[in-house]
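Project channel, design review

CF: Before we commit to the Crocosphaera watsonii WH 8501 constructs, I'd like one complete example in the thread so the newer folks can see what an input/output pair looks like. Taking Ycf36 protein.
RD: sounds good, go ahead.
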Amino acid sequence: MRQSSIQVCPVPLEQQPVNEYEELKESWFFRWATLDNRLFVRKITLIWIIGWLISSPIAAASFSPSKSALPFVLFSNLGAGLVLALILLQLFFGWHYVSDRLKKATIFYEESGWYDGQTWPKPPEMLTRDRLIVSYQISPILGRLTRTVGLLALLMAGDSLLWLYL
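CF: and here is what came back for Ycf36 protein:
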């Protein structure tokens, strides 16, 4: 009976890319990107509202809401957009990191500490499995996050242009 090369992998379990993917998928924060559209939009909207609540007192100190309502709203929107952008970028970079680890033909790992890094070439069946995970599971997540960041950038650019023409 032939022993699978996946079983003789010297990489510690917590550093194997497929296990990093599973851990990311089950994480309370990074799981947001895997939710269905309705729940994803709800989470993003909640973060935007929290960002608005954080940035609106700062905006109110600069622009009185009763005297300068439009600058107050625009500044609050830009602040909320910045908070949301930071959250979305954290999501994107986390998923992108795991995607890169899965796509590579070798696994970089540390045996006992930061000073003794090793690389291990993935066997063909592991490389195929990992690249299928990237293609069918992670690429749609990265696409969704890219589109969301793009839409947020457009909205913030619109706010900024409106700000310039006040």
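RD: helpful, thanks. The two ends are 76 Å apart (CA to CA).
CF: Strands lie at 106-110, 117-121.
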